[in-house]
Amino acid sequence: MTHEPASPPCYAAGVDGAYMGHAGRAEIVAALDELLEAERAGARVALASAKQGPAPDYGTLMGDVRADEARWCAMLSRHLRRLEAAPSRRTGAFYGKAMAIAEPWERLAFLNRGQAWVVRKLETLTPRVRDERLHADLKAMLESHRENIARAAALLEREGGR
Ligand SMILES: [Fe+2]
Q1: What is the whole-number distance in angstroms between the Cα of residue 119 and the centre of ligand 1?
Q2: Cα of 92 to ligand 1 centre, how many Å?
Q3: Which of 39, 62, 74, 147 is deepest in the core (most CB within 10 A)?
């Protein structure tokens, strides 16, 4: 047994949170913009795909994914404005890549891989966000993505010939 203090000394808060592993404002703005562009791409892919579903559940899933992606676009834009940054108006390159896949089940599988990329980004970013409101919103976005990924994977398994 040592008699050293159980916890490290406390440090005064930094100006923008860029200390002790927390992401600073510039890094957060860049990450939120990247996620916003990805979610906008996902929303557009899901909207375009909902109309031409090979099975009723396909259109329903795409419609729900579209609604979720739009919700996260609004959330990310809100936080960017709160950070006094102009939200990106671009759509991620993912949109063009996904729309180049004509086969609906293959496109859904590709969309799911894009959603998994978002999950990995959020898993890395969220623990480094000190702001409580942003942290909670990113965590909700992460959970929602995990649920949609599982739903799509189950549908692909059941009806997508995988
Ligand atoms: Fe997404």
Answers
A1: 8
A2: 11
A3: 39
